[in-house]
């Protein structure tokens, strides 16, 4: 990325995009080139709900810079979809880990957390993500803190 400077607003490429003022982010989107946008796009992919992604979403709520708006929106949507998928995988892995650590059969574990074995199977496969309160119950049963 090159040094980005527009009308008294400077985004220093040696400083993380997350530390840029909002005005530098907007100026880069509006007046920058593809090379200038790469840092923004990478940060959105790294943290789809982070400060930069939220600021870009806010900006796109009132401005539609030709050409770059769809690119930014697709990047945010794709990054969030990928993050959701990875989070589902992680939750499913944790459910399986807790079942194994409990020493109980799947049916016993399901009963101990107040659900059915078939529903537990959907959590363990990642097909369904359990509610946070159910994860707390799983943690209690899986770690022996009943």
Give an overview in words.
This protein has 146 residues and is mainly α. It has two domains: 4-65, no CATH class; 84-142, Orthogonal Bundle (434 Repressor (Amino-terminal Domain)), CATH 1.10.260. It is built from seven helices and two strands, in the order ββααααααα. It has helices at residues 22-31, 34-46, 51-60, 68-102, 106-113, 117-125, 132-142, and strands at 4-6, 9-11. It has a two-stranded antiparallel sheet. Strand 1 and strand 2 (9-11) form a beta hairpin. The protein is elongated, with a radius of gyration of 22 Å. The N and C termini lie far apart (54 Å).
Instruction: Give the uncertain stretches in residue-range form.
Output: none
Sheet of most strands? 2 strands, antiparallel
How many domains, in number, for the residues? 2
> Looking at the chains present, what oligomeric state does this protein adopt?
single chain
Q: What are the secondary-structure elements, in order, as H or E?
A: EEHHHHHHH
By DSSP, the count of extended strands is 2
Would you tell me the structural class of the helices and strands? mainly alpha
- Separate helix tally: 7
Shape: elongated
Radius of gyration: 22 Å
Which strand order do you get reading across the main beta sheet? Answer: 1-2
User: How much helicity do the residues have?
Assistant: 55-70%
First-residue to last-residue Cα separation: 54 Å
Strand content: under 5%
Mean pLDDT: 91
């Amino acid at each position: 990325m090159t040094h980005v400077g527009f009308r008294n607003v400077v985004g220093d490429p040696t400083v993380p995009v997350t530390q840029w003022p909002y005005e530098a982010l907007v100026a880069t989107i509006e007046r920058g080139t593809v090379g200038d946008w790469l840092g923004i796009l990478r940060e959105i992919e790294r943290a789809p709900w982070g400060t930069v992604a939220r600021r870009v979403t806010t900006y796109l709520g009132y401005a539609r810079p030709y050409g770059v708006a769809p690119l930014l929106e697709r990047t945010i949507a794709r990054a969030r979809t990928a993050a959701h998928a990875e989070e589902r995988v992680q939750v499913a892995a944790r459910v399986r880990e807790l079942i194994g650590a409990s020493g109980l059969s799947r049916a016993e574990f399901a009963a101990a957390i107040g659900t059915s074995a078939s529903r537990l199977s959907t959590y363990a496969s990642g097909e369904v993500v359990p509610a946070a309160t159910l994860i707390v119950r799983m943690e209690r049963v899986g770690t022996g803190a009943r």
